[in-house]
What does this fold into?
Amino acid sequence: MSYWQELGLGLWFTIALVALIAEFFLPALVAFFIAVGAVSAAVTLLLGGGVSLQITVFVAVGVLSSLLIRPLIAKKWRKEKSAVSGPERLIGEVGSVISINPNLAVKVSGQDWSCRVIGEDDITMSDQVIVEGVDGAHLLVRKFIKQ
It folds into this structure.
């Protein structure tokens, strides 16, 4: 391998490395595809492609991979990021009763909440409850029975 080929290879891998590092700090998922294009250009160099072919492969693979793959990744990413927030995130969580007079209050995930009991369960101070739903600022709970 000649000096110029080694230099070109080093350049493409440096571009790929910098792009991958930048991807950790950029929210747009673009730098990753620059890295993919740079690695593809390095492979082109190893297969004997000239500079113009390397640049063409770099641009083409970067653009095509971002157009074809990014929407799939972004769709999955949006689903994961659209997590439930507010009191709805507590549904299914188990909490401890902290007050029964004058109103029922529970501690769930480290926070105190006013709540209402679903069903005919008789709740005492030693009970644990499971959050079944939310009604305004109140959690809807049921007595938690360990199985």
Notes: The first helix runs from residue 3 to 23. The first strand starts at residue 94 and ends at 99. The helical segments are 3-23, 31-46, 51-81.
